[in-house]
Design brief:
Length: about 350
């Protein structure tokens, strides 16, 4: 892996590479032990580590920002920790206590703070995860795990407006399933349908409900939002729609800006009728990786529906306010940022 060179982070020549350090702790006999920061390096597992075979693996994705006054801040650590707990519970894995989670992330970001690139779009991506490490021939719920946190400088992947396909055949999440958990298997299962869509010229799929495939749920690994009749409309979260931290934050910002916000199911038909008639004016995905990703084309059963994407779109007002908070350009009225103060170096 390339190591840090002068200005390489600032000029963003180094992206999508891990920073110098990682956090690791091990769980056995009912408790987390030996929490430590170490040099980033491969970790040894038994080839029979249960997580490698049966996908007892849960992760989070979050970000730190190089704020305009030079401070480094992490976005909504407590929210990510809460969701981590929900995902771990669903996979029958031990919770990571809030203090351990926060300390792991904030210490890693602090130690590697020179890896946090300046804005306007750049950030430091943080990947906490737990994997079952117990060595065992045969299926069993593990009793031994590792909790690790790695990270590195990041720039958004989606730069142009997306062309997405409403998925009518494959299913991401079903009622009673694991769609609400950030567990590894969900992402493996999504790769094949996503590849088929990409081969057909789309950037992503819009997942629909498992039973009828007639209501939209998420776009790739982002929550889905629309402006319909002037209001911000998004499907409610539940066991098939992941509770995005970005989604929740954008909803709060929309309310702060005085927009109407409606959480309700959205049918495919509402889009195929509402886009041509002008009732549906904007569509976009929201998630930690891309922040706000505009959607320009929605394809339904072979027909393209085009949406306007320009500077007047309200999704950009939401995105700008979100970034203003993350980069410290406006007051953090909701207390979303944890400032990492340099004491761990
Ligand atoms: C991570 C993820 C999201 C977005 O969640 P954020 O907390 O906003 O990053 C949405 N949907 C799925 C399926 C995800 O995995």
């Amino acid at each position: 892996m390339p190591r840090l060179e002068a200005d390489a982070v600032a000029s963003l020549k180094l992206i999508n590479v891990p920073s110098d350090h990682m956090f690791i702790a091990e769980y056995s006999h009912g408790e987390w032990r030996k929490a430590r920061i170490q040099a980033y390096r491969p970790v040894p597992f038994s080839p029979l580590a249960l997580g490698l075979h049966y996908a007892q693996i849960v992760f989070e994705g979050m970000k730190a920002y190089h704020m305009q006054d030079g401070r480094v801040g992490v976005f909504r650590t407590p929210r990510h920790q809460e969701r981590f707990t929900i995902s771990l519970e669903r996979m029958l894995m031990p919770p990571v206590p809030a203090e351990l989670f926060a300390e792991a992330i904030h210490t890693l970001v602090d130690v590697d703070r020179q890896w946090v690139p300046p804005g306007p779009d750049a950030s430091y991506y943080i990947r906490p995860f737990v994997i079952a490490t117990e060595e065992r021939m045969g299926l069993k719920a593990a009793d031994e795990f590792s909790f690790m946190v790695v990270g590195g400088p990041f720039k958004p992947v989606y730069t142009r407006p997306l062309r997405v396909k409403v998925e009518r055949e494959f299913t991401r999440a079903a009622p009673g399933g694991t769609g609400y958990a950030k567990c590894a298997g969900n992402y493996a299962a999504a790769m094949y349908p996503t590849k088929l869509a990409q081969d057909a010229g789309f950037d992503q799929v819009i997942w629909t409900d498992a039973k009828q495939h007639d209501h939209v749920e998420e776009s790739g690994t982002m929550n889905l939002m629309f402006f319909i009749d002037g209001a911000l409309v998004t499907p409610p979260t539940g066991d098939t729609i992941l509770k995005g931290v970005t989604r929740e934050s954008v909803i709060q910002i929309a309310r702060d800006l005085g927009y109407d916000v409606i959480e309700r199911p959205i049918s495919v038909e509402e889009l195929t009728e509402g886009i041509p008639s002008g009732r549906v004016t904007e569509a976009f995905g929201v998630g930690t990786a891309a922040s706000v990703a505009p959607i320009a084309t929605i394809s339904v059963d072979g027909t393209d529906y085009q949406l306007r994407v320009d500077d007047d779109c309200r999704m950009f007002a939401l995105k700008n306010r979100l970034n203003d908070i993350r980069f410290g350009r406006v007051e953090d009225v909701h207390g979303w940022m944890t400032i990492v103060d340099g004491t761990a170096r």
